[in-house]
């Protein structure tokens, strides 16, 4: 088991470096997620190297330290993908709940609250802890399942609110990654084995998250963005008649043969909505510099130098 944990740990560390190097738009909670996974893997690795009960209990606490923040970071990533804002007060409460959950686990070896009893066994399969759960253990179940339910609700609310499937598909994809952990975690409760299969689900989830963020750095709403305009009379589908009329007026002033790319149309819609560069970047999951680049190319095509001149076109 030791060799497998080492391999997973090396892969996870490489994934962390890959995320830092390849992903342009960094997400703090993604770093927390990856770091938490590394900590959890270190804990499992330490358990596989344990020679006595005290060290195994300490290693188990290290694994839990990573696990409690895994659930929190996954939830925060899903929420951010769904463009929901969480106040600092709520965020601090969530962080505090993770700390409290970890402190409850830390009662192991001192009080029979989280584990009623715990024994160290080192047989032919290797070191392992045989646990009997105490009355506080259900709190951890509520903690993990609660976050999973929160992710599902976030995706559903986002889909209803925006009525656009693109971003919610990404969020749903990532929620499925979390679901893998939940299924494996529940399965381990009924199938006791001397191997933490959660390490596999952690790695799968990390790869899924990495893949999604790699895609999101260039386009967030692949299925939501309008098709390129092929002619002056080509009007895209938007969420209001007023906006459609504004776009039609702007597009009608384009020279013959000149079209706007789908990304330029995204930027133009954001400008017409009165959104700032930062807000447009958040909506499209792009960096502000990328939005600035597309805005400059849009201004050049429209032969304007500012947002005000775009609105002047509409008023003519």
Q: How would you explain this protein's 3D organization?
A:
The chain has helices at 2-22, 28-48, 53-81, 88-105, 137-162, 165-190, 198-216, 241-252, 262-272, 277-284, 288-302, 307-315; strands spanning 115-123, 126-133. A two-stranded antiparallel sheet has the order 1-2. Helices cover 68% and strands 5% of the residues. It has 316 residues and is mainly alpha-helical. Helix 5 (137-162) runs antiparallel to helix 6 (165-190). The longest helix has 29 residues, at 53-81. It starts with a helix and ends with a helix. Residues 218-239 have low confidence and may be disordered.
Q: How do you describe this structure in short?
A:
This protein is mainly alpha-helical and 316 residues long. It is 68% helix and 5% strand. Strand 1 (115-123) and strand 2 form a beta hairpin.
């Amino acid at each position: 088991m030791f060799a497998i944990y080492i391999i997973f740990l090396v892969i996870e560390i490489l994934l962390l470096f890959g995320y830092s190097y390849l992903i342009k738009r960094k997400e703090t909670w993604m770093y927390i997620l990856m770091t938490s996974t590394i900590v959890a893997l270190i804990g499992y690795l330490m358990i596989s190297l344990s020679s006595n009960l005290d060290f195994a209990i300490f290693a188990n606490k290290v694994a839990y330290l990573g696990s409690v923040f895994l659930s929190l970071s996954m939830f925060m990533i899903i929420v951010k993908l769904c463009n929901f804002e969480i106040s600092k007060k709520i965020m601090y409460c969530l962080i505090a709940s993770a700390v409290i959950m970890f402190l409850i686990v830390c009662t192991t070896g001192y009080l029979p609250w989280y584990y009623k009893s715990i024994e160290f066994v080192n047989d032919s399969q290797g070191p392992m802890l045989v646990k009997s759960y105490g009355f506080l253990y259900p709190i951890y179940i509520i903690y993990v399942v609660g976050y999973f339910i929160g992710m599902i609700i976030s995706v559903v609310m986002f889909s209803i609110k925006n009525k656009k499937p693109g971003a919610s598909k990404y969020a749903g994809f990532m929620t499925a990654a979390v679901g893998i952990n939940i299924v494996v975690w529940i399965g381990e409760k009924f199938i006791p084995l001397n191997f933490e299969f959660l390490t596999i689900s952690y790695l799968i989830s990390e790869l899924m998250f990495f893949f999604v963020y790699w895609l999101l750095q260039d386009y967030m709403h692949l299925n939501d963005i309008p098709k390129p305009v092929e002619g002056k009379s080509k009007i895209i589908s938007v969420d209001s008649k007023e906006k459609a009329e504004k776009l039609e007026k702007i597009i009608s002033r384009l020279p013959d043969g000149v079209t706007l790319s789908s990304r330029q149309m995204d930027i133009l819609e954001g400008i017409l909505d009165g959104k700032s560069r930062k807000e447009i970047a958040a909506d499209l999951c792009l960096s502000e510099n990328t939005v600035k680049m597309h805005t400059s190319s849009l201004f050049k095509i429209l032969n304007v130098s500012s947002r005000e001149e775009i609105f002047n076109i509409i008023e003519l």
